[in-house]
Design a protein that fits this description.
The structure holds two protein chains of two kinds. Chain A is mainly α. Chain A has ten helices and no strands. Chain A has a single domain, classed as MetI-like fold (Orthogonal Bundle), CATH 1.10.3720.10. The chains are: A mainly alpha, B mainly alpha.
């Protein structure tokens, strides 16, 4: 497990020490880790990470709220589907990043456009999946519930939502991944006060490659944690739900 | 019956779209926001028409698409061999898998500022970022695809005296192809996002991302919106037309799609 990293680190160190590139642009690993330790001890790194995580959560919660509600409504009511589906399917493939300059014009710089952008970029995949999930509920179950006298509310909470849940969770997982992928660059474009993307972007001005690499390292770490702790957990939960469905 | 149903849902969809467009138009003309920021549809259409005629929109779209395709080719050149090795050989898997799983969660665009310092602003940085974004889905899916090749096929090919090379060309490659193809398709989506960010940050000569970014300086929201629409249209057209037809010509003809679906 560790061997590939050791090899990579050795290769990096060899290139850095050989002096092929200026040390300012290609710092040795000691420099990077010393900088990382400094940033950690001074609390700078934490402040930036906190900003990024907060924005991720806010943007994602926004996307999840709007996405699940709209998607479920679209799946349930034909009128709403007709109204929104063309727009949603058109907007879905447009990278959210393309809106960044427009959002900056509309909402100024800072946190507001960043959160809105992350939300806008990640909500479409959630909408689509929630809609598909509700559409995929077996008609037999609906008819059976109806025949057994389920009210509209019971039908929704006891039949439709559990059956659509795997799709909704898949959508949420994809949405979170999407939000994470664009958040860093959104921070660069909207000039937020604290954020890992902004830290990397700012460090570029001063040729601080060690700070940039520390930032990328932390971004990778957060991404890995998201992948292992959040995504895989959601997936497991989904699989469990699937298991319950087939049983 | 089916045609009637299709046209009815088509008209309903069109009505829905018209309704949303009308909503935007009313909002734009109401003066709640200045028209410089939320232009009415008529002026967006006018500007879109103008920049199409003077060639700047098609040119930008061509640059962006070319960058995506070059980045995607890079990703395939790197990703497919690595994925194949990982799927076929335990040693390769043990070596590459940890690296891939650490590098994969880093958003490609986080590298842009560093790449700018290393390679300067312009095309090299943009292409590398697009390639980075596209490589991991290709590696991951190729690896999965090779492992998912039915072991029975491999054993029967071996027992019929196939060499390593034949085994690879005639069994493993076609067997893994649906997964590889899915990977490339996914990679296209990633690359399409990365190219927009790359063009905004790394300032190559032309491109839709660059056009949107530059238009902001001049408060030219018509150009921005027209370019955003172009991004959607080009991406969608490419995905639907090109990938679908490649899929039909290769995987479907080899009879691999149903096999993959059945698994």
């Amino acid at each position: 497990m560790g061997a590939p990293f050791l090899l990579l680190a050795a290769a990096w160190e060899a290139v850095a020490l050989a002096g092929i590139f200026p040390a300012k642009l290609f710092p040795s690993l000691e420099t990077v880790f010393a900088t990382l330790a400094d940033l950690l001890l001074e609390g700078i790194l934490w402040a930036h990470t906190e900003g990024t995580l907060l924005r991720l959560v806010l943007g994602f919660v926004l996307a999840a709220g709007v996405g699940v509600v709209l998607g479920v409504l679209m799946g349930r009511f034909q009128v709403i589907e007709d109204l929104f589906l063309p727009a949603v399917s058109f907007a879905y493939p447009i990278p959210g990043l393309a809106y960044a300059p427009l959002f900056v014009l509309w909402f100024g710089l800072g946190d507001l456009p960043a959160v809105l952008l992350v939300g806008a970029a990640s909500c479409f995949v959630i909408i689509i999946n929630a809609w598909k999930g509700v559409k995929a509920v077996r008609p037999l179950w609906l008819r059976a519930a109806e025949a057994m006298g389920a009210s509209e509310g019971q039908m929704f909470w006891k039949v439709i939502m559990p059956a659509a849940l795997p799709y909704i969770l898949t959508g949420l997982r994809l949405g979170l991944a999407q939000a994470w992928r664009i958040l860093v660059v959104v921070e660069m474009l909207t000039a937020v006060e604290h954020g890992l993307g902004w830290m990397i972007f700012g460090a570029q001005e001063f040729l601080n490659t060690d700070v940039m690499l520390s930032g990328i390292l932390v971004i990778g770490l957060v991404g890995l944690l998201l992948e292992k702790q959040v995504f895989e957990r959601i997936e497991r939960y989904t699989v469990v739900r699937w298991g319950m469905l087939t049983a | 019956m089916k045609a009637a149903l299709l046209s009815r849902s088509f008209w309903r969809g069109a009505a829905g779209l018209l309704f949303l467009l009308a909503l935007w138009e009313i909002f734009a003309r109401s003066g709640l926001f200045t028209q410089a920021l939320t232009p009415p549809l008529t002026s967006i259409a006018k500007v879109a028409w103008r920049i199409t005629l003077d060639g700047s929109l098609p040119q930008n779209a061509a640059y962006t698409l070319a960058r995506v395709l070059i980045g995607l080719s890079l990703a395939c050149l790197v990703g497919i061999p690595i994925g194949m090795l990982m799927g076929r050989f335990r040693a390769a898997e043990r070596f590459f898998l940890p690296l891939v799983s650490v590098l994969m969660p880093i958003p490609s665009l986080a590298w842009v500022p560093l790449f700018i310092l290393w390679f300067g602003i312009g095309d090299v940085t943009t292409l590398l970022v697009v390639g980075y974004a596209a490589t991991f889905p290709v590696i991951y899916n190729t690896w999965t695809g090779v492992r998912a090749v039915n072991p029975l096929w491999v054993r029967s090919a071996l027992s019929m005296g196939a060499g390593q090379r034949e085994l690879f060309r005639k069994v493993v490659l076609p067997g893994a192809s649906p997964y590889v193809f899915t990977g490339v398709r996914l990679a296209f989506g990633r690359a399409w996002i990365a190219v927009i960010g790359g063009e905004m940050l790394a300032n190559p000569a032309a491109g839709l991302g660059r056009a949107i970014f530059d238009a902001r300086e001049f408060l030219d929201s018509e150009v921005m919106l027209a370019s955003i629409i172009a991004i959607g249209v080009v991406g969608l057209a490419f995905e639907r037309v090109v990938f679908q037809s490649i899929e039909n010509r290769t995987i479907a003809r080899w009879g691999m799609v149903s096999a993959a679906g059945a698994r």
